Amino acid sequence: MNNCKRARVASLTIMCMAMLVPLNSSAQTDGVPPSGKKALGPCMRWSANNPSPDPMEMWAQGECAGMVAGIYFYGQLLPPDRRFCAPQGANQGQALRIVVKYLNDNPAITARDFRDLTAEALHKAWPCS
Questions:
Q1: pTM of the entire predicted model
Q2: DSSP letter (8 states) at residue 126
Q3: Sign of the dihedral defined by the CA atoms of residues 15, 68, 103, 80, in that order
Q4: Residue 28 class from Cβ within 10 Å (0-12 exposed, 13-18 middle, 19+ buried)?
Q5: Is the distance from CB of 50 to CB of 109 less than 8 angstroms?
Q6: Residue 49 and residue 27: Cα distance in Å, rounded?
Q7: Could you tell me if residue 49 is left (phi over 0), alpha (psi between -120 and 50 degrees) or otherwise beta?
Q8: Which letter, b or e, does each residue of 112-127 get, where b requires 16 or more Cβ atoms within 10 Å of its Cβ?
Q9: How far are the Cα atoms of 24, 27, 65, 69, 90 from residue 62, in angstroms, in the given order?
Q10: How many Cβ atoms sit within 10 Å of the Cβ of residue 11?
Q11: pLDDT tens column, 94-115
């Protein structure tokens, strides 16, 4: 592997790992990443193309969309137990709908970290062969 490719892989790996570190945002006043339960409402409204005029809700919707998009983008670089391979033609909107359905179908696990649940949902929907 040439140096350019090696640097690119290293950069992507670092960015992927950074997504798994707890986030600090004004919407997370307690410093804890959002749970699936906390993210579900804003994610549902965002996936239904129903953005909110409320700044805090808008922030939560953007946080949901951003986390799903980031995890979707780096799915093939995640650890094997979370790795997923989106099919040709898949998009971030489909990924978000998969996550929302997974959370709705599994309410008992929604207390967990939303990022982990997102990777888990996409891994189950789009396993790598």
A1: 0.75
A2: S
A3: negative
A4: middle
A5: no
A6: 21
A7: left
A8: ebbbbbbbbbbbebbe
A9: 14, 11, 5, 10, 20
A10: 10
A11: 999 999 999 999 999 999 999 9
